[in-house]
Amino acid sequence: MRSEMMSGCIRVRAFREADVQPLHEAVCESIAEVAPYETWCHPGYSLDEAKDYVTWWIKARERRSALYYAVEDTSSSRLLGVCGVSDVVSEHRHAMLGYWVRTSETGRGVATTAARLASAAETWSAADGIPIVDYSSPLPGGRFGQHAETLDADDFGAFLAASREVDVDVMLEIKDKELSALRAVELARGDARFVG
Q1: 49/87 same-domain check
Q2: What is the pLDDT of residues 98-142, one digit of tens each?
Q3: Which of 89, 22, 88, 13 is nearest to 57 (CA)?
Q4: CA atoms of 79 and 96, how far apart (whole Å)
Q5: pTM for the full model?
Q6: What range defines the domain where residue 134 resides?
Q7: What's the mean pLDDT in 27-36?
Q8: Based on the domain organization, do 4 and 75 belong to the same domain?
Q9: pLDDT (0 to 100) of residue 169
Q10: Which residue from 14, 21, 77, 116 puts its CA 20 to 30 A from 148's CA?
């Protein structure tokens, strides 16, 4: 199990106890943007909470139940965010990928690079087949975790562009499944990965 991987100016590495303060700073910077989507991120996020997360991530790695990584800038070692893979079930071609990037570092491709590195960290092999990605976008104005009623074409197009280098099967988590599936097919037709 690799504990560190790099691509360009992005490094993902196993968490260590010294990450508590940098994690706290990155989370506090990003509360306004992340809190609407993640319940762990909230006003008043404390150093104790950051310590609990870092400790859990370290122990989960030791148990091999989850592989969470600190995402860093290689030149400054600044914590840019967190990316991790959990709930790996190879026989079902399924795993959960979670990530977030601190607000001041968004729009640079950090999440895409970190997700690619973390997902390749001995959790998946070609023998496992093409991974299945559950695609969803939030319902605008809806409660946390509520899926959109219909496919957001711009968001789905951005997902296709961001995942361009990875071959995946896509499962839509959207209310009007058949209508959105037809729209997704039309949007994906120009993608070299599309089969159909």
Answers
A1: yes
A2: 889 999 999 888 988 888 787 766 555 666 677 777 787 777 787
A3: 13
A4: 22
A5: 0.67
A6: 130-191
A7: 93
A8: yes
A9: 82
A10: 116
